[in-house]
Design a protein that fits this description.
The chain is of the alpha+beta class. It has one domain (about 1-65). It is about 45% helix and about 15% strand. The chain has four helices and two strands; from the N terminus they run αβαβαα.
Length: about 70
Amino acid sequence: MKLLIEMSCPVLLLQADASSGGMMTDEHVERASNILDEVVTVKLKDIGHGLYREKTDEVLLPVLNFLEPLRT
């Protein structure tokens, strides 16, 4: 948690589906969201721990959406 407190940049938190092998619980996401100043959370259904390997296109879209406003 100490590292989360020290973060001052926007954060994209991708949560895989626990029933498909995701490791981050809703409680983890809630705790991180309460600590981070700028956080966007995305819950990915039917995608397990290997987010990018399992469903690349479904994972890439929220990543690109998160990054777009940060472009200068």
